Automatic annotation (TrEMBL):
Upper taxonomic lineage: Bacteria, Pseudomonadati, Pseudomonadota, Gammaproteobacteria, Vibrionales
Binding of Cu cation, residues: H206, H256, H257
Stretches assigned to coiled coil: none
Entry's EC annotation: 7.1.1.9
Top-level lineage group: Bacteria
Positions of the Cytochrome oxidase subunit I profile domain: 15-469
Protein name: cytochrome-c oxidase
Species this chain originates from: Vibrio hangzhouensis
UniProt keyword annotations, A-Z: Cell membrane, Copper, Electron transport, Heme, Iron, Membrane, Metal-binding, Respiratory chain, Translocase, Transmembrane, Transmembrane helix, Transport
GO molecular function: cytochrome-c oxidase activity; heme binding; metal ion binding
Keyword rRNA-binding: no
Topology with respect to the bilayer: Multi-pass membrane protein
């Protein structure tokens, strides 16, 4: 089939990618503000609208729903066309999905600082916005699977399997976790209570990470890593094993968040065992992606987009090692509710998801706008080292703070009296919280360099692309 005759729908993809860049910067700037507030509480400024409790869900929602969902929607709609050699199922539907999702993000931006929240982790938005999320998600699913059905090739590329899993699982767990009884226009109460509510919440919370920040990003990378390395996937069979391993075990691991709680011990144990099993498919997939890049070692040595992808894989390995480790009871006893967990989350969020997204931006945006190269190779090099320094400082600072904090909380005298007060534990971790703020600032500074570089790239004179993206 002559694929050059096809006119793929890329305008809506461009809009999704631009929205992803905007939300990546906005969400992470709010994160730096929050890190500053933890070290300088006066920055709350006695305002109910910008205090930590209201900005924190705005930060997580901006990064997860703004940055990640926009980039996954945009890349999935592009990849499903390219790999299926067909155009989108319905062009008008794609624009309904785009604008519907931006309306949701705008409502989040308005409602969360005003204090309208369910107080459920990564599911803070109130019930009218939840209904709109479900509606737009169903339209997105119809668009994606409708395009799959239109494909001109029999084979379904592995990236689309990961996108399909992310769409289906997120729909299922989002709806169940957000079942609620409305009390007013902007207030509702969960239909679950107590331990039952905690189990359902972490079924959602952990799998929002597992399928939005992991499966979806893996699907995106399985397309772009072979493209940027100019080599095929190292092992297509291993990519399929990676898929089924992730889908089969990840959905069971959420209760490792509830160790030492009132949730039944056998339910906790399921989360622990499944977390440990997840090491195998996670590292198998990481090995597959790393070997794909290493097939072109010459290019890897000097191509910073490839190095961003390679760094993302290393942080994926770290996060998927550390997660099961923290699920083991002895480690969880020290780490639970400490800064160590925050360091773990952000080494994955900034190192794995952030660097994957950055690599895709650098590779994809010039090609979407018909440019052959970036405006400045020096700026991407600076960005690479700023990002690395930022993540390393952030993670190491919180590892030290969290481990020390955990030991201080557990330390007892011979008669069972606590050796350290809460204030002493706070004083111990204060300098590490400053280092966290500094590391986050470096990462965000790199994002501003990226935005400037990409803006200048898009403004370059148009050229005729020799190869498709």
């Amino acid at each position: 089939m002559n694929t050059s005759a096809l006119h793929y729908e890329t305008k809506v993809v461009k809009y999704f990618i631009v929205a992803a860049v905007i939300w990546a910067v906005a969400g992470m700037v709010i994160g730096v503000i929050l890190a500053a507030q933890l070290y300088w509480p006066v920055l709350n400024m006695n305002s109910e609208y910008i205090q930590f409790g209201r900005l924190r869900p705005l930060h997580t929602s901006g990064v997860i729903y703004g940055f990640v969902v926009n980039i996954l929607m945009g890349t999935s709609l592009y990849i499903v066309q390219r790999t299926g050699q067909c155009v989108l199922f319905n062009k008008s539907l794609s624009w309904m999905v785009f604008w519907g999702w931006q309306v949701i993000l705008l409502l989040a931006l308005l409602s969360l600082p005003l204090g309208y929240t369910t107080s459920k982790e990564y599911a803070e938005l109130e019930w009218p916005i939840d209904l709109l999320i479900v509606l737009v998600w169903v339209l997105y699913a119809v668009l994606f699977f409708g395009t799959i059905a239109k494909r001109k090739v029999q084979h379904i590329f592995v990236a689309n399997w990961f996108f399909a899993a992310f769409i289906i699982v997120i729909a299922m767990i989002f709806i169940v976790n957000n079942l609620a009884m409305p009390a007013s226009l902007m207030k509702s109460y969960s239909v679950f209570a107590g331990a039952q509510d905690a189990i359902v919440q972490w079924w959602w919370g952990h799998n929002a990470v597992g399928f939005l920040l992991t499966a979806g990003v893996i699907g995106m990378n399985y397309y772009f890593i072979p493209k940027v390395s100019q080599r095929p996937i190292y092992s297509y069979r291993l990519s399929v094993i990676h898929f089924w391993g992730l889908v089969g075990f990840y959905t069971w691991a959420g209760t490792h968040h509830l160790i030492y709680s009132s949730v039944p011990v056998w339910v906790q144990n399921i989360g622990i065992v499944m977390s440990l099993i997840l090491w195998l498919p996670s590292w198998g997939g990481a090995f597959n992606s790393a070997m794909t890049l290493l097939q072109n070692k010459t290019k890897l040595k000097s191509d910073y987009i490839m190095l961003f992808f390679f760094s993302a894989i290393l942080y994926y390995c770290l996060a998927t090692f550390e997660g099961p480790l923290l699920a083991i009871r002895w480690f969880n006893m020290i780490a639970h509710n400490s800064e160590w967990v925050i360091g773990h989350v952000h080494s994955g969020a900034l190192g794995w998801v952030g660097m994957s997204g950055i690599a895709v931006f650098y590779y994809f945006i010039p090609r979407l706008w018909g440019k052959t190269e970036l405006w400045s190779s020096r700026l991407i090099k600076w960005h690479f080292w700023l990002a690395h320094s930022g993540v390393a400082l952030y993670a190491v600072a919180l590892w030290v703070a969290g481990i020390g904090e955990g030991y201080m909380w557990l330390a007892q005298s011979n008669n069972g009296e606590l050796l350290y007060s809460f204030v002493e534990a706070m004083n111990f971790k204060a300098p590490w919280l400053f280092l966290r703020f500094f590391g986050g600032s470096l990462f965000v500074l790199g994002l501003f360099l990226m935005v400037f570089n990409l803006y200048k790239t898009v403004r370059l004179p148009a050229v005729l692309m020799a190869k498709e993206a």
